[in-house]
Write a structure and sequence with these properties.
The chain is of the alpha+beta class and 40 residues long. It has one domain. 25% of the residues lie in helices and 35% in strands. The chain has 1 helix and 4 strands, in the order E-E-E-E-H. A two-stranded antiparallel sheet has the order 1-2. Strands 3-4 form a two-stranded antiparallel ribbon. The longest helix has 10 residues.
């Protein structure tokens, strides 16, 4: 399991999404990805 750096939930490694924060690759769950895309 991977931990989301946004909401700190645990999610399946297979459904992982990566975002870059200060040039470092971070793991983020699908819900947070959807929320971020909704805001932008």
């Amino acid at each position: 399991m991977a931990k989301c750096i946004v909401c700190n939930c645990e999610f399946e490694e297979g459904k992982i999404n990566h975002i870059f924060i200060k040039r470092k690759l971070k793991k983020i769950c699908q819900e947070c990805v959807a929320a971020i895309k909704g805001f932008s």
